[in-house]
Design goal:
Layout lengths: L22 E5 L5 H8 L3 E7 L2 H11 L3 E4 L2 H5 L13 E4 L19 E4 L4 E4 L3 H12 L3 E7 L8 H14 L1 E9 L7 E2 L1 E9 L40 H7 L9 H7 L10 E3 L5 E2 L9 E3 L8 H7 L12 H7 L3 H16 L4
Helix pairs in contact: 1-10, 4-5, 6-7
Length: about 350
C-alpha cells in the first residue's frame, strides 16, 4: 500500500485531519463518504445537507458538523438566509441522486417522473436535483463547485442534461468542465467510474482558461497501481443461501454474475446485479446492495464488513449503524474525493495560483 498516496485501509482514530486547506459544505452528504475525502485532503467540512434522517444521524455521529441541515436540497436552496460562513466557502460539494441516469436503471423511461426513493422516502424528480444544487451555488457563490455523478450521464440522450448543467453553472457565475474518473486508478480497490464536474467562479479564472475553449483547466490524471481483491481479502463474509449455492456450483470463470450460473443450472434467471468477485482482479463497483451485491468466485460467501470498508475506502472504525453495506455502496469513496480535492487546492485554491 506504500505506493498509494492514501491507504485504503485506515481508521478515523489515527487520521490526521489538518483542516488548513479551506472550508467545504457537503450537499446530499449521505453517510459522509465525500466529507471524509475532503478531510483527508486537509479541508474543514463545516456542514452538510441531507434528506434522510438515518443518514444524517450517522453523519453527525462520525463528523459532528457545525451546520447540519436535515432537509431536501429543494427546500434548502429556497432559504432566504444561511450562516455567514456558508457565504465564504472554498468548495460547495454535492452528489445529486443519480439513478435516473444509471445504466442499471430505466434511464430515459424514468426521466421527469416523480419517484419515492430511499433517501428520506420523499417524492422527488431526481433529474432536477442537480439544478436545485446549482441554485444553491448561485446564492452562496463558493470559490469552487464540485459535483459527482454516474457515468451514464455522459451516454446517449443524457448528454443534453450535461449541456443544461454547464449552462446553469455558467448562469450561476462559473466556468465548468467535467471528467470521467476511474476509482481503480486512484488507489481505490474497485472499478468505480464517476463523472466529476468541477467549476470555478469566473472572477478567479484569469489564469485557468484553456487555450482551446472557455472551460477551466484542471489536471485530473491519476495512475495509481490497481489493487486486486486478494490484497485486501479476509474471506470472512456471510455464506450465500442454499438457492444461490445451487447456481454457484455451476459457475465458470467467464461468468460475471450469478445470473449466468443460474441460466446454466436451468434455474430462473435473476440477480443480474449480484456480481462475482475474482481474487486476481480489481473488484467491480460496490452498489447500493452493499455486501449482498457481490459474492466470491473462490468461496460461496458474500463480502465481509471489513472487505467492504476497504473496497469503499471507508475507515474501519466508522460508526455505520445497521446499513453499512448500503451506505458504502451509495457513497463517493473517500480516497476518490481526496485526490480531486488535492487537485482543486493545488491548482486553483493554493496561494499564487
Amino acid at each position: 500500500m506504500s505506493e498509494h498516496k492514501y491507504p485504503y485501509e485506515w481508521t478515523l482514530k489515527d487520521a490526521n485531519f489538518t483542516k488548513d486547506k479551506g472550508t467545504v459544505f457537503s450537499c446530499f452528504s449521505c453517510g459522509g463518504g465525500s466529507t471524509m475525502g475532503y478531510k483527508l485532503a486537509g479541508f474543514d467540512v463545516i456542514g452538510c445537507c441531507e434528506i434522510d434522517p438515518k443518514m444524517i444521524e450517522v453523519y453527525i455521529q462520525n463528523h459532528n458538523p457545525k451546520y447540519p441541515f436535515l432537509e431536501g436540497i429543494q427546500e434548502f436552496a429556497e432559504r432566504d438566509e444561511y450562516p455567514e460562513e456558508l457565504y465564504n466557502l472554498d468548495i460547495l460539494d454535492g452528489s445529486p441522486p443519480c439513478s435516473s441516469f444509471s445504466m442499471a436503471g430505466s434511464r430515459e423511461k424514468g426521466w421527469g417522473e416523480e419517484k419515492k426513493f430511499r433517501e428520506g422516502q420523499a417524492d422527488q424528480v431526481l433529474d432536477t436535483l442537480f439544478f436545485d444544487f446549482i441554485k444553491l451555488a448561485k446564492k452562496l457563490q463558493p470559490k469552487v463547485v464540485i459535483a459527482e455523478n454516474v457515468k451514464g450521464l455522459l451516454l446517449g440522450d443524457a448528454q443534453s442534461y450535461v449541456n443544461d448543467i454547464l449552462l446553469a453553472l455558467d448562469d450561476a457565475g462559473y466556468k465548468t468542465d467535467y471528467k470521467l474518473l476511474n476509482a481503480s486508478k486512484m488507489g481505490v480497490p474497485q472499478r468505480r467510474e464517476r463523472v466529476f464536474f468541477h467549476a470555478i467562479r469566473k472572477d478567479l479564472t484569469h489564469e485557468t482558461t484553456d487555450l482551446f475553449g472557455d472551460r477551466p483547466r484542471l489536471d485530473l490524471e491519476f495512475n495509481e497501481a490497481p489493487i486486486i481483491f486478494s490484497e485486501l481479502a479476509d474471506y470472512q463474509g456471510a455464506p450465500i443461501n442454499d438457492f444461490k449455492k445451487q447456481a454457484w456450483d455451476h459457475r465458470l470463470p467467464s461468468d460475471t454474475s450469478i445470473s449466468d450460473s443460474k441460466e446454466r443450472a436451468g434455474m430462473k434467471v435473476s440477480d443480474f446485479n449480484t456480481c462475482y468477485v475474482f481474487d486476481h482482479k480489481v473488484m467491480q463497483t460496490v452498489t447500493g446492495k452493499g455486501e449482498k451485491g457481490s459474492l466470491l468466485f473462490s468461496k460461496p460467501i458474500h463480502l465481509s464488513k471489513t472487505e467492504t470498508c476497504k473496497i469503499g475506502s471507508y475507515p474501519l472504525d466508522y460508526q455505520f449503524g445497521k446499513d453499512w453495506g448500503y451506505m458504502i455502496g451509495m457513497s463517493v469513496p473517500p480516497i476518490m474525493t481526496a485526490h480531486v480535492a488535492d487537485a482543486v487546492h493545488d491548482q486553483w485554491l493554493k496561494p499564487n495560483k
